[in-house]
Amino acid sequence: MKGSECRKSLILVAISMQEKGLDTNPNTRQLFSLLVCLIELQKIAYSLAADRTPRAILRAYNQSYLFRILCAEVFPELHECTERAMYGMPMHCITTHLAEQLRLICGRSLVAEHAERYFNKLRYFSHSIQV
Question: Is the whole-model pTM more than 0.90?
Fold first, then answer.
């Protein structure tokens, strides 16, 4: 599944929760808030360079902090995975580096698939060149 398909699925789950009234249910309110927070972080991360304003960057700082707090509240005890798997490098990158990175570089230019394509091209050309 591609990243865009995962993002679409996340949005559809949040919409479905809202339609069923689970966003106001005290038992699922935190989970819904976590999903909305993640959706907004993704929106900020993949926004165009013109939308990268100081206000959006501040919003990214606030949302990443809220996302980390909500993760700790929604998943207080982990049974299926380890703490390192849940709160490891991806969580660290989102909560610590995302907003700072948005200040410096446009998020759309950091798509991993583009980097992989360029890397594969370089690897192909390096194999075709004989030294």
Answer: no
